[in-house]
């Protein structure tokens, strides 16, 4: 419950501090006195957006502070989840600076507006004429039925599964699209891959093949040159090897005379050894050379395959072709993995579908059982509010769609009079009827769920007399379990309150201000009498006011 409200420099309020008690509180005042200003200030505390027009004095900041008793609201988990200090007496403060910037605090910890709005759902429900029209909204109707059906925990479980189901479904659809797109290219990619694999490429192979091709293609001239070199080197009388040995023998004779000659001898010896080795290698090379047209053709074919692939893939090396082959292999493998993932996600989705169907069936069953209870209680309350022939027709329509609260659609129809057909609430119910229906709904919900502080903003529009008295009695009964505020113009309702606040304007030195005052018993009699008869209070109005209060 809200225990106090402090307002500074907001609209027509310069400074105001007021304490509230539990039970049923009444707020009255002439039109334009400032009741909407009080609600506006509360709205800022609850996270509504603000602007500079909120400031009475544009040079000073606006500060609105509300204190709430929340020990029975089970909000410790909320505070922990949002990293806030929990206090049974929680203070929410909102500041609007002259610069236009806004700041919000919960127990002196800065918070953003979303956190403030999330917390406000547990604290205050401001019910206005505009919200009465929300009764025609299917989501609101479901919330009413589900509260009576005790479906909250089941719907919470359902929504957790639904979130996972939608996530997996989204992944599955993305994979299926990827598979479809990849499938269009897969046949061509497989052909390219097989073409590369068939060639059995190796790094450095092209250079080796090109060297082999040159040898095989010029085998005759190579053999002729090598053999001629062997002959020149090894001819018995005039060959290079014979002449080198002659030089070596001549230098050996003078090597002992000088280190210079010794060095020359050693060098020619080295040359002789090297030439002997070259001669042997030439001999081996000559013996290996064979005229092999078949091998030449195979080498040429392999090279042409490589050249064609390089041209096709617009590269110049075998290593680049090998990289393309690896990429194609990964592409084919990835598509195979996609198929495995699709199979896995499909199975998970089937499991989630079974869970959702089971939970939605339970939700539906609970709703089917709750609808007659809701209809009966609504009719019972509304009969006492001047609607003796009211009827409701609530039907659950099965759907294959997974909505946020199950698989049901709802047809919520209403008839106020005998002989009239059922119709949609927003089309056939008057403003006064909608107000009474909403009050009946809130009265029923108060028995099934822990509603926050309720503020009824002129819910009595379109009613009077005995109906107004009964509306006041219903709100009075609700206040036994929760804090209720009623902003009203009807004395019959005002008289039912445990405490009575009056909003009024005062003018000082050409400055108009709105003020809120807790009325004493005597002041309350006069206020209700004025509501009955106007500014001039008659004795009969006073007596009537006292009778209402008693």
From TrEMBL:
Which keywords appear in this protein's UniProt record, sorted alphabetically? ATP-binding, Coiled coil, DNA damage, DNA repair, Nucleotide-binding
* Pfam families tied to this protein: SMC_N (PF02463)
Keyword ATP-binding attributed: yes
On whether Manganese is a keyword of this UniProt record, the answer is: no
Q: Which SUPFAM superfamilies match?
A: P-loop containing nucleoside triphosphate hydrolases
State any single GO MF term.
ATP binding
> What does the record list as GO biological process?
DNA recombination; DNA repair; SOS response
Q: What start-end ranges are recorded for coiled-coil regions in this protein?
A: 321-369
Q: What's its job?
A: May be involved in recombinational repair of damaged DNA.
What is the designated name of this protein? DNA repair protein RecN
What organism is this sequence from?
A: Flavobacterium hydrophilum
């Amino acid at each position: 419950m809200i225990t106090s409200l402090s307002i500074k420099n907001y609209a027509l309020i310069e400074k105001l501090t007021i304490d509230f008690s539990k039970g049923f509180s009444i707020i009255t005042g002439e039109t334009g006195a400032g009741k909407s200003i009080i609600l506006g200030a509360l709205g800022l505390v609850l996270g509504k957006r603000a602007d500079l027009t909120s400031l009475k004095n544009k040079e000073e900041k606006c500060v609105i502070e509300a204190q709430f008793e929340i020990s029975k609201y089970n909000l410790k988990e909320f505070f922990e989840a949002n990293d806030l200090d929990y206090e049974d007496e929680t203070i929410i403060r909102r500041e609007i600076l002259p610069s236009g910037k806004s700041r919000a605090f919960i127990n002196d910890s800065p918070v953003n507006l979303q956190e403030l709005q999330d917390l406000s759902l547990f604290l205050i429900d401001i019910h206005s004429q505009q919200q009465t029209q929300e009764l025609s909204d299917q989501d609101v109707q479901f919330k009413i039925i589900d509260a009576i059906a005790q479906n909250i925990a089941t719907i919470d479980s359902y929504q957790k599964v639904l979130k996972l189901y939608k996530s997996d479904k989204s992944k599955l659809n993305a994979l299926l699209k990827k598979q479809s797109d990849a499938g269009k290219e897969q046949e061509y990619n497989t052909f390219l891959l097989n073409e590369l694999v068939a060639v059995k490429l190796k790094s450095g192979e092209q250079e080796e093949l090109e060297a082999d091709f040159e040898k095989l293609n010029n085998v005759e001239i190579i053999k002729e040159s090598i053999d001629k070199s062997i002959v020149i080197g090894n001819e018995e009388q005039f060959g290079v090897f014979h002449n080198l040995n002659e030089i070596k023998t001549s230098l050996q004779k003078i090597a002992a005379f000088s280190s210079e000659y010794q060095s020359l001898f050693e060098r020619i010896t080295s040359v002789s050894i090297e030439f002997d080795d070259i001669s042997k290698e030439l001999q081996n090379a000559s013996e290996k050379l064979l005229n092999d047209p078949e091998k030449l053709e195979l080498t040429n074919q392999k090279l042409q395959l490589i050249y064609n692939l390089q041209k096709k893939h617009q590269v110049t090396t075998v290593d680049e072709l090998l990289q393309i082959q690896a990429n194609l292999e990964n592409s084919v493998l990835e598509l195979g993995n996609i198929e495995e993932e699709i199979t896995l996600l499909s199975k998970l989705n089937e499991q989630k579908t079974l869970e959702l169907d089971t939970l939605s069936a339970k939700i539906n069953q609970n709703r089917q059982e709750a609808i007659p209870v809701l209809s009966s209680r609504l009719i019972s309350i509304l009969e006492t509010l001047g609607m003796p022939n009211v009827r409701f027709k609530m039907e659950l329509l099965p759907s294959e769609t997974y909505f946020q609260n199950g698989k049901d659609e709802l047809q919520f129809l209403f008839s106020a009079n005998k002989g009239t057909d059922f119709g949609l609430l927003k089309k056939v119910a008057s403003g006064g009827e909608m107000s009474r229906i909403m009050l009946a709904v809130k009265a029923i919900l108060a028995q099934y769920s822990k509603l926050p502080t309720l503020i009824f903003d002129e819910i009595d529009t379109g009613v009077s007399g005995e109906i107004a008295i009964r509306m006041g009695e219903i709100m009075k009964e609700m206040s036994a379990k929760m804090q209720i505020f009623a902003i009203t113009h009807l004395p019959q309702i005002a008289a039912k309150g445990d405490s009575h606040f009056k909003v009024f304007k005062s003018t000082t030195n050409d400055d108009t201000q709105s003020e809120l005052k807790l009325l004493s018993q005597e002041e309350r009699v006069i206020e209700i009498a004025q509501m009955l008869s106007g500014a001039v209070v008659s004795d009969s109005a006073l007596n009537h006011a006292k009778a209402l209060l008693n």
